[in-house]
Amino acid sequence: MLSIHITITTLNVELARILEPRAPRPDLRMAAVREISEAGINVGVSCSPVLPGITDSPADLEALVRDAAAAGARHIFANPLFLKPCSAAVFYLSSNRSSTTGRELSTALSGSGVPAGFVQQAYRTVDRALPQKYGIKRADPRQAKPADEWAVQGFEEQLTLF
Prior knowledge:
The chain is α/β, with parallel strands linked by helices and 162 residues long. Helices cover 44% and strands 9% of the residues. It has a domain at 3-81 and 115-140: Aldolase class I (TIM Barrel). It is globular, with a radius of gyration of 18 Å. 26% of the residues are buried.
């Protein structure tokens, strides 16, 4: 089964411009979710990364879930920002150049991890808002079909790449 996942980290256009300056606006991404869903294709939203102190408020996460469900998304998931040590310094330098958001993010994150309990809080917020209110599921990759259960088509000869 084909499934498309579209990343939408925030509905706040101004914040989205700071976080992803060259990416499509959140409303355009949500419109894409709607169009894909209306075409009958399984579509979901990834609200990742969730940024501590910036995109993790329960109200903002719930609004994102609500809008995703209204647009026809069938599933959603959230994960926190994860930075390996080699990329953390570059990210902090880049984010500190613009507004308070970068400073808040640098303060909120320590090393490559996130504050204790943050992951569980984000999951609880998203999981709580999903099934009862909006009829959307939390995507869980652990429930994916194992690779050996997929039908595999064999070929008589090796295909060429070029």
